[in-house]
Amino acid sequence: MLDIDDTIDAFRRGALDFDCKRMVLAQRKKDGERFEGQGYVRQSADGTLVCKIYVAQHNAKPFGHFAAMFATKSGEIISDDLFYDLDATGHDGTRWTSKRIRLAPHWDATDLSVLVNAQMQSITAHLDMPQRLNFLRLHFFDEYVVPLHRMSETEKHGNRWMVRDLAEFEACGSKFEVRKRDGSGDTTIEVTSESPFPAQFNLRIQEALQYITAKTAIYRARLESAGSELHLELASSLRKAPRTQFNPPIAPISIDFHQHGWRLFGKYLEYVIASAKGTYWNPVAYHLYNACEATAGSLDAWAVGVSVAVEALTSLISVEGDKEKAERVGVLQDRMREWFSEQADLQDFANRINGQIDAMGNKRPHDTLHVLAETGHVTKEYIKAWNRLRQRHVHPTIRDLKKPDQVDYQELFDLIHRTEVLLRQLTFYLIGYEGPFTDYGVHADQGPPSAQYPLRVADSSADLADVP
Fold first, then answer.
1. Who's near 410: CB < 8 A, 6+ residues apart?
2. d(CA 7, CA 346)
3. Were 88 and a residue from 20, 48, 146, 176 both cysteine, which residue would form a disulfide, CB within 3.0 to 4.6 Å?
4. Does 465 or 169 have the greater pLDDT score?
5. What is the 3-state secondary structure (H, E, C) of 208-268?
6. In angstroms, rounded to a whole number, what is the distance separating the alpha carbons of residues 303 and 291?
């Protein structure tokens, strides 16, 4: 019988290793290649899942993988029928499966025997362990800073003491239990519910954790009920920036983080569930992820990342008057096209003119942002900061590329931080959050201050003395 916790712990330590009495790799096409035999699953030095099969039976053409390799053109995505699916049985009887695997067969030219090596993005154990409630547990193999308000007992070398390592709350009709203990190398989120979970619930929770921590979070182990089975998925690590500088919506040093952090998590989770139908990424989470990863690069990359994210999120927002304005712009476009069609001597500019007329129908982010500022949903002066940052780094002039001095760097950091706050305010508007947040755009002796969202209209448009 598979020991779930021991298996996850071994995987976290990079020590997963189990033998299989039967392994079958089947190509993802009708009458495709099939390799069968005994073998094992292990982790490579960098933690990637790998498998090896000592093939006893197959229907493959010897050295046929070379023909398939040479048939693939450089620069083209590999077609789905060149991948294989794995179905394996461990010596303890556990069934393991994995999908979309690329093989590296090794043929012995003397006897045409074959070994198959492969890397796997993930592998799933199918366990005969039905659950009374819908159940999900995610392991992130990293210690994220999250609001913890419960304590549990720990023991080391015979000494016992209490540590704060647990949070419990409810969100989206489910009960959540979050655990993070210093030195454990892991943060876990466990969820139970009497009702079925929403589609891709594991990814939506992952996105919500990324939101409140402002760190890239990708789960490495997933334990989830699936009908009469319990599935344990183990996933190889994906590339992510090792040191990002994205600021969370509420600073962890603030009491507001502990009092309102999970409520903000729940509001965001509710939004991404409702607005991510048919997509792998929720659009908001996708843009925030790109902005977060960009902060690990140069200051220019950081500036471009947050500037583009503000523009992208603004495009998701509709404000009062958008429909009427779009209709009036459509009338203007029709009249302009009609007029230009009568200018016979200017038709060589037709493509250029039509492109400019079409562009008039695009909604301007500035218009949306200023409407939100008038209602206290974004800070008006931070719109100016975003516009200046965007112009300097997305559309730089020669003057913008001069060697910076200390004053220039201070101005740049101010612009970045205020643009990040503007970005967070847009997410608050989208998810319907009301409550405290951290205003990183204000200089204060005791660190960035807390503010309330929505803003008072006077605050949203007030002149700040130190805004560039």
1. none
2. 72
3. 20
4. 169
5. HHHHHHCCCCCCCEEEEEECCEEEEEEECCCCCCCCCCCCCCCCCCCHHHHHHHHHHHHHH
6. 9
pLDDT tens for 380-416 read 999 999 999 998 887 777 776 677 777 788 999 999 9
What does the alpha-carbon distance between residue 238 and residue 246 come to, in Å, rounded to a whole number? 19
The answer to whether 454 and 434 are in contact (CB under 8 A) is yes
Residue 454 parent element (H or E) = none
Distances 28 to 79, 85, 114 between C-alpha atoms, Å:
10, 7, 20
Phi/psi of residue 406, each to 5°?
-60, -40
| Cα 278 from Cα 105, distance rounded (Å) | 36
Domain with CATH 2.30.110 in the chain: 4-73+80-126
Mean pLDDT of 57-63: 88
For residue 12, give every residue at least 6 positions away whose Cβ sits within 8 Å of its Cβ, in sequence order, or none. Answer: 139, 141, 185, 186, 220, 221
CATH of 4-73+80-126, one of 2.30.110, 1.20.120, 2.60.40, 1.10.357: 2.30.110
The pLDDT assigned to 1 comes to 81
Q: Phi, psi (5° rounding) for residue 437?
A: -150, 170
| DSSP letter for each residue of 260-295 | HHHHHHHHHHHHHHHT-TT-SS-HHHHHHHHHHHHT
| 330-373 per-position pLDDT tens digit | 888 888 888 888 888 888 888 888 888 887 766 788 889 999 99
- In angstroms, how far is CA 352 from the centroid of its own chain? 38
8 Å CB contact between 216 and 241: yes
pLDDT the model gives residue 242 = 84
| pLDDT reading at 245 higher than 70 | yes
